[in-house]
Amino acid sequence: MSAQAGPSKKRPVIVEEDATKLQFGEFADGEALTVMEVQLLLAATRNAPGAPKAPDNKVYKLTSEYVSEFSNAASDVVDSMRTALMAHTQFLNKFEVAQILYLRPESVEVAVALIPSLDRHMGQDDTTETLSQILEDVRGIARYGGRP
């Protein structure tokens, strides 16, 4: 009796997810949103003409409460900050953009502590200075509500 091997099954490749290395697996092509932007999207979908009534479930209610509680800027300020940061897409990943928008770190050191992937900019004077200027611009927009 000979044992006949069945068709070989290939195991799916599992992509490692690690935000500190900017590896997001299946979400790599997705958009990174801030809490403020999620709040705007929820409001826009509720207020759209012909939109269905908001779901009556615990997850939706808790999400709405969370974004209302932790949203920390008006929509025009968020738009201004994102526009300013999108000028640096060769320098920042979209995940880093969303984190900087929400956290608004006070210094490069704090930014790297909160967003470890930014560590790649440390130790190089020109990139550290660029990151410092980006953080200052974002804080200025948040503080004064417009372009720095």
From TrEMBL:
Cited SUPFAM superfamilies: HRDC-like
TM annotation in the entry: none
Predominant location category: nucleus
InterPro entries assigned to the protein according to its UniProt record, in alphabetical order: HRDC-like_sf, RNA_pol_Rpb4/RPC9_core, Rpb4-like, Rpb4/RPC9, Rpb4/RPC9_sf
Gene3D superfamilies hit by this protein: 1.20.1250.40
Cellular compartments annotated: Nucleus
A biological process term (GO) from this entry: DNA-templated transcription initiation
One CC-aspect GO term: nucleus
MF term (GO), any: nucleotide binding
UniProt keyword terms in alphabetical order: Nucleus
UniProt domain RNA polymerase Rpb4/RPC9 core: residue ranges: 25-145
Family in the record: Belongs to the eukaryotic RPB4 RNA polymerase subunit family.
PANTHER family: DNA-DIRECTED RNA POLYMERASE II
Name of the protein described by the UniProt record: HRDC-like protein
